[in-house]
Amino acid sequence: MKTITSLLKTSACLGTFALAALFTQAPLSAAEKTVASFESDEPLKSWTSVNDGVMGGISKGGFKRSEQGTLLFTGDLSLENNGGFASIRMKPSALGLSGMSALVVKARGDGRTYWVDLRVTNQMNASSYRAYLPTTAGEWQETRIPFADFKLQAFGRELPVKPLSVAAVTSVGFTLADKKAGPFALEIGAVNASGGEASAEPVKSGNNLVEVAKASGGFKTLLAAATAADLVGVLSGEGPLTVLAPTDEAFAKLPSGTVETLLKPENREQLVGILKNHVIAGRVTLAKALEAREASSLQGSKIVFKFEDGRVRVGPATLTKADIAASNGVIHVIDQVLIPARTETGALNAAGLIELAIERGVPIFNHGDLAGCAALYEVTAEALRTLTSVPEASRKVLAKALQEARLEKSPRQRAWILRAALDQTLASLN
Fold first, then answer.
1. Which range marks the domain in which residue 403 is found?
2. Mean pLDDT, all residues of the chain
3. Which residue, among 334, 337, 358, has the nearest Cα to 421 in the 3D structure?
4. End-to-end CA separation in angstroms for the chain
């Protein structure tokens, strides 16, 4: 784990010019508002620390301003005496966030997952509205958290639904309570609020999922696999899709020769199954995933999301970055490849893939996520075109439907075009 000393050394290596560029706030638009910045010592007068000593614990936590104009939240978490939390927060004052839709936190952590706390007027001291703030050790991240994602909690338990009144927010804070003893360090560059229509979705970038992955430089193996499986077109399409993206390092953890074997044409069906196990229909933010606790991959597996040992777990993998926005979906980065569990009957055949897609797609469509249903059908149609067990005539039907669907602006019509092709293909298989 990186200590605050190592974090400061990293900052020093950036150089004066780079630091100035990092922490000098660009002019905010009319739809943005500064909630907290730390260019001087004056703002720190409105902050205070509250640790588990209030209930008999011995955790240490406090804050100070760095020479680079950031807020350093550091300490040592202890689980003794029924303790286990350290926190800092702003003293209550009118923040004027009416009309804002999300909080934007620029921070660098130590790999642990923190809470962002919001408190409102006349709220009991032991409660706050909370949202997760995952961090990657030593890396600066700008995390946008829609206000709709904050859930009211007290003593670590979620309270009956009481939506956050953004206009009533009077305090912002940070808490570490991950049940993992030891030193911690969170460096906060700035906290802003952004406006626009209230939404639980992340801001969409101008690039699609494939373009975002390419730009990051850390997903070369994933992109090569998607190319071999003929799924690049789907991941570049309308969506929306949620991609659980294993890094190149995650693929490197597989047994020697595994990736090379999967990329061979004769193993395309198995590769498609593995890749579909990393894709979820619709735009599923981290907050939504943790609230639902599980989601169905396009391959048919249940992917479990949970907060455990100070980390967000995605199945057997650990989440390293969350809510990377793309124009057609969202990416969550994981450190392990999610190999789908094999059943007694082995991998699904072509008919099984279609039946599973329809089984998953119908409730998605009926719940109003027309684009998510269309995206699921699109991925399935593309996968079917790569299977030698699908007759050539059916592959032509699927290709025509995909072409028509991609020219269709209505997600409802896209879903129906693709569903008709899937039904026709299933009939030919049966």
1. 209-429
2. 80
3. 358
4. 56
